[in-house]
Amino acid sequence: MAKVTINPTKLRVELTVAEQILGIHRSLTLPGKQVIGAQALGKRWWATLGLRIGTGIPGLMIAGTFVRKGDWAYVSWKKGQKPLQINLSGNKYSRIVVGVEDAEALAEDINTAITGC
Fold this sequence. Notes:
Elements: E1 3-6, E2 10-14, H1 17-23, E3 28-31, E4 35-40, E5 51-57, E6 61-68, E7 71-78, E8 82-88, E9 95-100, H2 103-115
Parallel strand pairs: 7-9
Antiparallel strand pairs: 1-2, 2-3, 4-8, 5-6, 6-7, 8-9
């Protein structure tokens, strides 16, 4: 499971070795100013992802870069994990979706960190 940490200057998405191999991507470190928000996603969140460069087994796991009409998303999710979407600006990716244990709480933590409240 990806580990997400944020502080005023950066957001870090630490992927396991298996997640890096399956998603064809290393862990991500982003400047804090590129993070514009986060949200927990509901059912059928994967329906808008588009063309995949990576690995996918429907209903079990999704990992890789997805492109759809100029929307670039990096995804690392497995069944049983809650999908968290991190929205970005000024980055190749417009969003990162990772599977975490408590997406609602982590989204709140990220949103609080970026607003400084």
